[in-house]
Amino acid sequence: MPSIPAFADPDSPALPLHLVARDGLAAWLKDQPPAVAEWLRATGFEAKPGELRLLPGEGGLAGAVFGAADAKSRARDRFLIAKAAAGLPAGNWQIAGDLDPAARDEAALGWLLAGYRFDRYKAGEPQAARLKAPAGVDTARIAAIAAGEALTRDLINTPASDLGPEELEAAAVVLAAEFGADLRAIRGDELLAENLPMIHAVGRASARAPRLIELRWGGTGPQLTLVGKGVCFDTGGLDIKPASGMLLMKKDMGGAATVLGLARMIMAQELKLRLRVLVPAVENAISGEAMRPKDILTSRKGLTVEVNNTDAEGRLVLADALALADEEKPDLVVSMATLTGAARVAVGPDLAPFYTDDDDIAVALAGAAATVRDPVWRMPFWDPYESIIEPGIADLDNAPAGGFAGSITAALFLRRFVEASRYIHFDIYGHQPAAAPARPKGGVGQGARALFEALPQLLGL
């Protein structure tokens, strides 16, 4: 189980953390003991968003005051209270006063996520301050979300030397065992026998055998199938990336990491649904077995694909997995992948673009994302661009020339493999380029919390 901080015992004593907005500071100070008010004035406390000040008392530490978010900072900075969690001394703390339900959940989750440490290779100092969860917080749900996010971060942060297809399968085995799920894997040449030829084609050049990992959990309710891109390292293949382009390619399995983290949330909270997770796990390497530019592959669905760039491999492995998913006609199929640089150019690293043809899904996701502070942005399945992915010599082109609308054309490519089911595709980044509250630099989940929040509405749970 991923390591995250726990909430303080609800019956334990805790010091108060006062959240004070800048425009309410003067009124708040009037209600404080003169010594406290004088101390804050003397130390120049202005209640700027994120500003923290400890409060002395007769017996030592009496509490702390923290500059709460105003409208501008709330729009710019999620999980601002994580700055308090990181800055407070050891002990139990509780938020003084009442918060609205969304704010208290954000505070509780932000506090736990602020305590995340990736310490596999270098020891780190644990977070000293523990939070006594605000009244009304569903602590089990928040802890489940934090644990799912921590699993995603751990997997993305692990270098490819220690996380290839075999190790990604092992992580799924551990997850399945924890929640009593069924797991199987189709490996190496078995992929050809099981009609998963494009997963095999992408992964066959590596000394680390490609595989399809399948997890199933739950016996009743609507069926949800999650498909995550598991390219454990991406050299680009024969269309090799420059050295600078490979520096973050350990994160190219971020889609797989994110769906496994989301699956953990779902199973921990025992949602009444049937869950299926499909992860095509490969390493896009170079050898005499590597696929070549202009090769034509035949997919599981029977559609032929001209390989015009071996570095556009993610959509190939996802296509076979999506075709497999669609054969059972689940109530909802979701694919998540670190798929295109074009998505990063369009919306940057902080937004998770998603595609769907269903307006109700889009509205539900947008509302859930705002509630749980997991930003997503709808992009269009733009039908007029369908011709761009049709090369003439084959049914589909994995890397159309021209350079325009790269994320859209990749999404359109994937949509060709899902016909019977409602479908959402996420083109995520999976990486936090600079530290932010509750999000250290490195691997990060995107879209999973929004989906988790929206599932009851999407599936009628």
TrEMBL record:
Q: What is this protein called?
A: Leucyl aminopeptidase family protein
Instruction: Answer whether the UniProt record assigns the keyword Hydrolase to this protein.
Output: yes
SUPFAM superfamilies recorded for this chain?
A: Macro domain-like, Zn-dependent exopeptidases
Key word Disulfide bond present: no
Organismal lineage: Bacteria, Pseudomonadati, Pseudomonadota, Alphaproteobacteria, Rhodobacterales
Q: Which domain of life is it from?
A: Bacteria
**Which Pfam family is one of this chain's hits?**
Peptidase_M17_N_1
Cytosol aminopeptidase domain residues are 309-316
User: What are the UniProt keywords, alphabetically?
Assistant: Aminopeptidase, Hydrolase, Manganese, Protease
Q: Please list the GO terms describing molecular function.
A: aminopeptidase activity
Family, according to the entry, reads as follows: Belongs to the peptidase M17 family.
